[in-house]
Specification:
The structure is a homodimer of 320-residue chains. Chain A has 320 residues and is α/β, with parallel strands linked by helices. Chain A has 2 domains: 5-190, Alpha-Beta Complex (inorganic pyrophosphatase (n-terminal core)), CATH 3.90.1640; 195-316, Diaminopimelate Epimerase, Chain A, domain 1. Chain A is 38% helix and 18% strand. Chain A has 11 helices and 11 strands. Chain A has helices at 5-14, 28-43, 91-95, 125-136, 142-156, 166-176, 182-191, 195-206, 223-229, 277-282, 301-316; strands at residues 18-21, 48-51, 76-80, 101-104, 115-118, 209-211, 216-221, 253-261, 264-271, 287-288, 292-298. In chain A, the strands form 2 sheets. In chain A, strands 6-7-8-9-11-10 form a 6-stranded mixed beta sheet. Chain A has a 5-stranded parallel beta sheet with strand order 2-1-3-4-5, covered by helices on one side. In chain A, helix 3 links the parallel strand 3 (76-80) and strand 4 (101-104). Chain A binds chain B through residues 158-162, 164-170, 172-174, 176-177, 181-184, 186-187, 190-195, 198, 202, 205-206, 214, 243, 246-249, 273, and chain B through 158-162, 164-170, 172-174, 176-177, 181-184, 186-187, 190-195, 198, 202, 205-206, 214, 243, 246-249, 273.
């Protein structure tokens, strides 16, 4: 059942003994939500603890420091930033059908909780935790503000992506009044790269293929390449590579071809304002957004490229 | 004479025939200020035009589109984001001693205008133009909001740097209500890199020297290296390289050694929270901020490194 922020806040005041679940492969938003909500509930005199199927990356450990560890048997399960119970990872089997309240901001999602408070226009689920704190009238503090800010920054690429709203900046301005080292947070989230990641990016750039006066750039992430870098690169370091080709000046369509099986490739297409990435991917039974879309194509790498190239060239208006 | 925002706004209402000067090598803040103020004054029924000693980079041309070209002889000169008249470049000789009103946010500056409205706590001079528009009660529009947002984003590294304040985010939230393609602006300002820049960064990374378990990273920008990349890299592309070494995970002190003359090197030191970069640079008669400082050292490159290394090692607490 869908509920609004007032009802969600009222429920959180009424119940107790909370177990807060983040999605697997946790990011700054799901963790920021969990640790902020946990601290807020503890401040309100409740028992609360957080749980996630996977470990928290060292660079996000600072999110966990504001919580009092409490021993208790949980009675009320809340999920944060979880669009589908499957995304709970290995916790799905144990808790997936017991979630009382889901707090989320994903537009496409499946209902799995008894009650759901969802705001698809929110850039980050942490915006919803902020709204809940306002309604519950629990004062924030530096640590809670740190958690909520981390969620906003994570999901908006530090206020760069198109999901950022006036409300996102307004909440950021309120959070910043609590004074926390946002420069270090942003450094950890956005600037810092492992040596292994830099080497991986170097090799990807060296092998990047350009067509049509650099308007098209293609990157191939083959199993061989991933395997070779596996030992010097964390799993997390393989994220975000799909953005690389479009970053080169002049590139209007950036394509990342990622090998899934011997002859199955997952394609990610990023495009400039003028070009509809979704239309390109629909030709291959895929889809997505106008500026970022995807599809899956079968064949050898050369066959996959040969299938795509005419569509890409047509999109940038470049003669064969 | 220092004046406040009310007085600055009153003056701008009173006078007319404005020439607005940006600093040389213009960035998004000085240009954002100039084109926003020009549009605001034109909206208020005044004559106004912008001037800069240097050309506007193609990726910032979008800032200029909201202005009506007006032919007139100027009577009132306003400078924006100019901390010293020398920074006007070749315009200094012509207009440097005729500036009526300087609008600026630099902490260390020299007075050169008849009247100066300065707010050293503002992250960007564009914040001051926003305040002036509020006091003058001239409504903003999409194009003015675009200019002001560009200034905020430029000077804060898209809200990442420590100069960002609650007010910066608050103004950003107000500007975003006018709806403009901020995602594209941020892409152009922060994500996009020329092929030449990527190749330059690659070579710099390959030659980066690490000491003390990667806690220290040193980059050398020799004349030979700069010369070799000169043809494939714009002058602008040589900016921002000083941030590179500190971006590698684990690096606590990132040092960039830039050759100025055969045996003169300019050093830039960036450090983690725990380390005082300014203290290190003071040992070599330099200085700056706690996390970003600089100095100049004479000698061969090897001599310069040999002079610095003991100080760097001491700072990270690593035995010789």
């Amino acid at each position: 059942m869908l509920i609004n922020v007032e009802r969600a806040a009222r429920m959180l005041k009424e119940y107790d003994y909370y177990l807060i679940l983040s999605h697997a492969n946790p990011d700054g938003d799901t963790l920021g939500c969990a640790y902020a909500l946990c601290a807020l509930l503890q401040k309100a005199g409740k028992f609360a603890k957080c749980l996630c199927a996977d470990e928290i990356a060292p660079r996000m450990k600072y999110l966990t420091t504001g919580i009092q560890p409490q021993e208790f048997e949980h009675q009320t399960i809340v999920s944060v930033d979880v669009a589908d119970r499957k995304l709970l990872g290995k916790l799905n089997e144990v808790y997936g059908d017991e979630v009382f309240l889901a707090i989320d901001h994903h537009r496409s999602r499946t209902e799995f909780a008894e009650f759901t408070y969802v705001e698809p226009d929110a850039a980050a689920a942490c915006e919803l935790i902020y709204e809940i704190a306002q309604v519950m009238q629990i004062p924030l503090d530096e640590q809670i503000a740190t958690c909520l800010y981390t969620g906003l920054a994570t999901d908006t690429g530090c206020f760069r992506f198109s999901n950022t709203t006036p409300r996102t900046h307004f909440i950021a301005s309120k959070l910043m009044e609590y004074g926390f080292p946002y420069e270090d947070i942003n450094y950890r989230l956005f600037d810092m790269k492992s040596k292994g990641r830099v080497r991986l990016e170097q090799e990807i750039f060296e092998k990047m293929e350009f067509y049509c006066d650099d308007k098209i750039a293609i990157v191939c992430l083959t199993n061989e390449l991933m395997e070779r870098h596996k030992n010097s690169v964390d799993a997390e370091d393989f994220n975000g590579l799909a953005g690389m080709p479009r970053r080169i000046e002049g590139v209007e369509i950036g394509v990342t071809i990622k090998q899934k099986e011997e002859k199955v490739f997952k394609i990610s297409v990023r495009s400039s304002e003028e070009i509809n990435a979704s239309e390109i991917c629909e030709k291959f039974d895929g889809g997505g957004h106008a500026r970022a879309a995807g599809c899956t194509i079968e064949g050898t790498l050369e066959e996959v490229k040969a299938k795509m190239l005419p569509e890409l060239k047509r999109a940038v208006g470049c003669g064969e």
